[in-house]
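Support request, please re-run this one:
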Amino acid sequence: MPTFFYWVWLMVKYRSFSFYKYANTGIKNGGFYGDSKLDIYKLLPQNSYPKTLLINKNDKYNFEKVISEMQFKFPLILKPDIGFRGIDVVKVYSILEIENYYHLKKVNFLIQEFIDFPNEIGLFYCRMPNENNGKISGLTLKNFLTVEGNGDETIAQLLKKIPRYEIQISKLRGEINLNEVLQKNEKRCLVPFGNHNRGTEFLDGGVYISQKLEHTFNTILKSVSGFYFGRLDIRYHTFEELERGENFSIIELNGAKSEPTHIYDPNNSFWSGQKEILRNQKIMQRIVELNLQQLTAPAQKAGFICPKADW
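Re-run finished. Output below.
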């Protein structure tokens, strides 16, 4: 709510409810809403994201043939092409599960190879349109929803011990056997998606931001036409390899609607989170101003000032 009023001020300043579309001129609505995940993947360098296929809700499919032609291997990830907060993202193991998803969801969705790298981060990236290189303004480490067995209690009982996990029980019901008893010291990842809405714990990984990491992602993202502000969700093998640009995959790229997810570290306060959101919104404002100067004559005549980024 505190930063909402700053957003209102920006609408007044630009005399527009949709000023945010100038944050990323290469993405529909700047990536604030209605943006297709597949369209964004197409902006990325080849082999930097999972192999993906769009399924149109109005078309008919022989999914066995589709999987064979695409040389997909189970398990696979299904997700709405236009999605939000990990809703309706599922991991499937059979043709039947894909067919059920197709008939039940009735939306355009993606079939995507499952990236089994063990780690995931959220990397917030910003670049001024008049500058060659950008900055990583935040980095989030993600701990997936994982339980450890004791040989006595069921998965449901283990989940109830942790408030963050307990509220996921209703979502997991039907996906896994909640009555299963895990052996002592057996660890089981129940939700392989790095999403706060699905029980993942977010930790502030700002100490891992390095010049080497910034150089790697500047090289990758400068080639993404019209992208200046947003968050990448990245699966990777080791951090050292990620810094070198090896053994990683960009699971998603989000634009103007992106949150600096490191604010959700349990050690961070509410007000520190508000401060960080406001800092990123001010960065987005500077990007919008410069893009307006470059793209619209009225913006140039209005004499908008776009200072050099103060990171």
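DSSP finds eleven helices and eleven strands in the chain. The radius of gyration is 21 Å.
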